[in-house]
From TrEMBL:
Protein name (record): Pectinesterase inhibitor domain-containing protein
Originating organism: Eutrema salsugineum
KW Signal (keyword) present: yes
Residues in Pectinesterase inhibitor domain copies: 28-162
Secretion signal span: 1-28
UniProt xrefs under SMART domains: PMEI (SM00856)
């Protein structure tokens, strides 16, 4: 009994396609079962942020509001640190800009404007990334502003992922 190498190759391809389809089906099933965080890059952080919300519009709103709360806190920390490290001034400016973009994003949800929602969340994500990149070169490894910007970036990334599910 010989094994046809072409059939073995085709069988492997079929198996890989089947696995890929079942993986996508599992994600779709989780989403249909009420877990919007399946689309997030940081699902654990997302689930902790949305606190059980299954409605994607409500989950996105809750995630943005929590991000705003944490941005406010990071802004307060940056205000205290700005005298010690001049690079923090960039972060402070970016936190203010991100907060403004998040306020706009909340209005975009109310207005069912998914296009503007994605733009404003992308802008906030860029603000957090700019802060992280600016602070990367600081001498103090455990810089609280740098760490805050990293978490805020992850939260903004999750918000952006959730926004792709928002019904228009």
């Amino acid at each position: 009994m010989s094994i046809n190498p072409h059939m073995n190759f085709l069988g492997t391809i079929f198996l890989l396609l089947l696995l890929a389809a079942s993986s996508q089906s599992a994600a779709a099933l989780k989403l249909s079962l009420g877990d919007p965080c399946t689309v997030a890059d940081f699902p654990g952080l997302c689930r902790g942020t949305i606190k059980g919300q299954t409605n994607v519009n409500a989950a996105t709103d809750v995630a943005i509001r929590e991000l705003m709360k944490r941005t406010r806190h990071a802004r307060d920390i940056a205000k205290k640190e700005v005298k010690r490290d001049g690079k923090v001034a960039t972060c402070l400016s970016n936190f203010n800009s991100a907060f403004d973009n998040l306020e706009k994003a909340l209005n975009n949800i109310k207005e069912n404007d998914g296009f503007s929602l994605n733009i404003n969340l992308s802008a906030a994500l860029t603000d957090y990334d700019t802060c992280s990149e600016t602070m990367k070169g600081t001498l103090e490894i455990n810089n609280v502003v740098y760490k805050s910007a990293g978490v805020l970036y992850q939260m903004a990334d999750n918000c952006l992922a959730l926004s792709t599910l928002v019904k228009q």
